Amino acid sequence: MSTAPLTGAAAGVVTIKKYANRRLYNTATSSYVTLDHLCQMVKDGTDFVVYDAKTGEDITRSVLTQIIVEEEGKGQNLLPISFLRQLIGFYGDSLGGLVPRYLEYSMQAFARNEEQMRQYMSHALEGMFPFNPFEEMGKQNMAFFESAMKMFTPFYPPGTIPPGKTSNGGAEPTNLEELQARLNAMQAQLDKLLTKDK
Questions:
Q1: Which strand (E) or helix (H) includes residue 52?
Q2: Which residues make Cβ contacts (< 8 Å) with residue 42, sequence separation at least 6?
Q3: Quick one: 38 exposed, middle or buried, by C-beta within 10 A (0-12, 13-18, 19+)?
Q4: What percent helix, strand, coil does the chain show, rounded to 5?
């Protein structure tokens, strides 16, 4: 079997060794790497396993978990607090053995429909933000636009008056039920999209 360093799909599974000083060594490239490098490898679709250099133990799971912790710490939070609480609650539970398969299946289903999801979100944003100069926005579209913007009031720059605010500083009452209804409607559309081809 060839020992020449390979990368990408041709490499198969890349072996990473973790030493006592916490340094990570990529045996395929004969170089030390960081968690950021491993994160990019995951995004690039490069499969790898991580072994403890001293004991030979497979520590891939803990390293991937560490990558998630670092990514969450950078500000892009993909894991809701409620989800984390529920996940922790399943440790030691009799149903805990079913959780990994359920999560794996859910993520596989999401990945299968990823392109459709991207197209859906793109079209949804185009509907909210019509940049086509030849497209005439009717009153109905404008009303929808202003209504949608009320959901993102905290993101308006200083000095601007977002929809729902009056020029004298007054504010219209927040309708939480209406906001929840909109979110439920969007969730229903996403669920329908994910199950359409099943």
A1: strand 48-52
A2: 64, 67
A3: buried
A4: 55, 10, 35
- The DSSP symbol for 165 reads B
DSSP single-letter state for residue 96: G
pLDDT tens across 127-146, in order? 554 444 334 444 444 444 45
Q: Residue 26's beta-bridge partner residues?
A: 16, 31
Neighbouring CB atoms inside 10 A of 24's CB total: 19
Q: Between β-strands 31-33 and 24-26, what pairing exists: parallel, antiparallel or unpaired?
A: antiparallel
Can you list the alpha helix ranges (DSSP code H) found in the chain? 35-43, 60-73, 81-89, 99-112, 114-128, 139-149, 176-195
> Which tokens is 175 given?
């309708």
Structure tokens given for 19: 């030493």
**What mean pLDDT is reported for the chain?**
74
CA distance 191 to 198: 12
**All structural domains of the chain with their residue ranges:** 1-78, 113-195
Single pTM value for the model: 0.54
**Dihedral-angle region of residue 12 (phi above 0 means left; psi in -120 to 50 means alpha; beta otherwise):** left
Check pLDDT > 90 for residue 29. yes
